[in-house]
Write a structure and sequence with these properties.
By secondary structure, the chain is mostly helical. The protein is about 65% helix and about 0% strand. The N and C termini lie close together (about 10 Å).
Length: about 475
């Protein structure tokens, strides 16, 4: 088992090393020679370590379901560890703790940062930050589904491990072909957004960097003020693509030929309705603070950014009235659709939990009645229902215990900061409230807290189960 896990993890790490080459090329292009060489050294170290685990220690073979879960969790932690090298070798981030936090935030598309002003970073490092989110957006494991079968390792178990409780949405009978088609859509949307942003007030470099972090729902930017300093045109473009990134990419693929599929999707209708409803509420409250168009734009941008877990900001929602701050935290938990690049609980699970609760209430009144939980036209099986309930239980347990532990680490962290930081990390958003609000960063969090939040970022990104199972005897026994 360990040799097969080394084979998979090593291949993923080697892939991460290859991904460091484009940032080095960008650094050379902008005549940042020293940084370019340092990034290339980081790439070489990562590739060599990956190849050793992959080809020397590892052993090829078909993996079991439990090995798939283990591979998912270990691969993401390994990616985050080696992803720190470009930061450390260039001196962009000197602390190992902070570099790991920044890298984990990148690969998990959380967008939480310890860099107060990204504009002071070199072009190569800025692209590396964006690229980590772009890779993590579709999921390095989904990418592996397209690659690992070529290496003799099955991808079905990996796909199940990445989204437990909800069957992977196949576009073709072969997972490798499904992953390829999803990546085509992902790359296409990224290129389209970069083109539209470049037509506005962004430079080509800024457009590419922001397109990668929008489609990944990551939120890393190139400026200290996030998106606030860019034109309304740019903000509207980003709103559209944040919304698209929060929807299922399998649905996007099918809708390319038949756009009516969007309307036929019960989850998409719910996703759009929740964003619309929250936007109306926010707009009504802040309407008197400025021009109508700006109020609508700020409301829609903030709601979409929070619900898709992107983390961009055009307004300081941490300074809004308490009711809207509570709404913001609620949106952090919701997340986008299943099969999207967004984090959070996901609208599919929220809908099923709500319908199950409604069925339980009816069952109290009619104890002999038989009630079937449906979502759209589909019947939700008992096994899926149980998996969703277990997921939600773990999710809330991690949120509550994480808040308590983080609050105990430093007397300077109040309840709002601790709770929102944990919720933001677990849901892969980035900005929270209090000291980690849209105008702040995570520097004030103690080192132990950064390790805790990094763990929560990876746990949330992998939908909890693969990471939790790493700490159980069920996974490693036998």
């Amino acid at each position: 088992m360990l040799q097969r896990l080394s084979y998979i993890t090593g291949a993923v790490v080697a892939g991460a090393g290859v991904a460091m080459v484009p940032p080095a090329v960008v650094a050379f292009f902008y005549r940042e020679t020293t940084e370019a060489v340092q990034i290339l050294i980081a790439a070489l170290i990562t590739i060599v370590a990956g190849v050793l685990g992959w080809r020397v220690v590892g052993r090829q073979g078909q993996i079991t379901a439990k090995e798939g879960f283990a591979a998912v969790g270990l691969a993401w932690f390994a990616m985050a560890a080696f992803g720190t090298l470009p930061y450390l070798l260039t001196g962009s981030i000197e602390s190992v703790t902070q570099a790991f936090f920044e890298t984990a935030a990148g690969f998990t598309t959380t967008g939480a940062s310890v860099v107060p002003d990204p504009s002071v970073l070199s072009h190569g490092i800025l692209i590396w930050r964006s690229e980590t989110q772009w890779i993590g957006g579709m999921g390095i494991i989904v990418l592996s589904i397209a690659i690992l079968p070529l290496l003799g390792v099955g991808g079905v178990q990996l796909a199940k491990a990445e989204s437990p409780g909800h069957q992977p949405d196949r576009l073709t009978p072969r997972f490798r072909e499904t992953a390829k088609r999803l990546w085509y859509v992902y790359v296409g949307f990224t290129a389209l957004e970069a083109t539209l942003l470049a037509l506005g007030d962004m430079t080509l470099f800024q457009a590419v960097a922001h397109a990668m972090t929008t489609m990944s729902t990551g939120g890393f930017g190139t400026e200290a003020t996030s998106i606030t300093g860019f034109s309304p045109y740019t903000q509207w473009v980003i709103i559209v693509f944040m919304f698209m990134a929060g929807a299922s990419f399998a649905l996007h693929y099918r809708a390319l030929r038949a756009p009516v599929r969007y309307l036929r999707s019960a989850e998409f209708r719910l996703y759009a309705a929740l964003i619309l409803a929250a936007t109306i509420v926010v707009t009504v409250v802040i309407i008197g603070s400025g021009p109508f168009e700006k109020a609508v734009r700020d409301a829609l941008f903030t709601v979409t950014s929070l619900m898709t877990t992107t983390g961009y900001a055009t307004a300081d929602f941490g300074s809004w009235v308490p009711g809207l701050e509570i709404l913001a935290v609620g949106l952090m938990f919701l997340g986008g659709m299943a099969g999207s690049t967004a984090g959070g609980v996901k609208t599919f699970r929220i809908a099923v939990l709500t319908k199950a609760a409604s069925a339980d209430l009816r069952r109290i009144v009619h104890p002999r009645g038989v009630f079937v939980t449906r979502f759209g036209k589909e019947t939700v099986s008992d096994s899926v229902m149980e998996s969703i309930q277990t997921f939600f239980l773990f999710y809330m347990f991690l949120f509550m215990s994480g808040t308590v532990v983080l609050g105990l680490m430093s007397s300077s962290l109040d309840l709002v900061t601790s709770a929102s930081a944990v919720a933001s990390s677990l849901s892969n958003i980035g900005p929270g409230l209090g000291q980690v609000g849209p105008t702040g960063n995570y520097l004030a969090i103690p080192d132990a807290g950064k390790w805790l939040l990094s763990f929560l970022m990876i746990t949330g990104r992998l939908e909890i189960f693969p990471v939790v199972l790493l700490f159980t005897r069920y996974l490693w026994k036998g």
